Amino acid sequence: MKLIVWDFDGTLVDSRPLIEAGMEHALKGLGLQDRPGLRESWLRSVGLPVEAGLANTFRPLGMDPAEVLKVYRSFDWAGNEHLLRPFPGMEPLLQELRALGIRMAIATSKRSVPVLRQIQGLGWAGWFSPVVTPDDVVLGKPDPESLNRILEETSLDPEDLLMVGDTPFDLDMARGAGVPSLAVGHGFYPEEELLPWGPRAYAPDVPALRDILLAWAPGAEARA
Q1: Do 56 and 103 lie in a common domain?
Q2: Within 13 Å and on the Cβ side, how many CA atoms surround 181?
Q3: In whole angstroms, what is the distance from residue 124 CA to residue 207 CA?
Q4: pTM for this one?
Q5: Helix axes 65-73 and 16-29, enclosed angle (nearest 10)
């Protein structure tokens, strides 16, 4: 494990309150706030690029996803980023991994401007390289292009990477790139929806994630 590639939303940070606030804004703007099951359907696409999630959710309703996107993006995302927080214990874990000299990157379905702003706001600037977003690739998750780009930029082999994510889209992307994966259960999807995608391990929470990553980190035997 020479490079840990993190998903961002639902893996490093608990962004559910922010995402749900944006969804509520959009549903009210569209007059759909009382439609049964729509929120749940939309949440099933969290982890995909937003355009794909909107297409999955609203096209079956006969709606133009581009029009929904306009309303969704009219939400004051930057002004509500106080709703986004690292999962408890995540920042100390990142600091511990950095102290061990472990390289880290991000492959996210969030666009470059917000994710870089949020990384900066969390005090994590310079902790991850590269940071690959839908702005950097032709095909977003679950296509393996994001991880293939990281492999090209770092000149590492697939088995040198570890993809850590909370959605089937993260794990499917890793499988397509031949990269080992680790599923986390503190995000948007339950264990039974993650294990079929073949992660090397499953961590239900951050303490379990720490135990796994430190056990797999270079020099683990010497530190035991």
Answers
A1: no
A2: 27
A3: 20
A4: 0.91
A5: 120
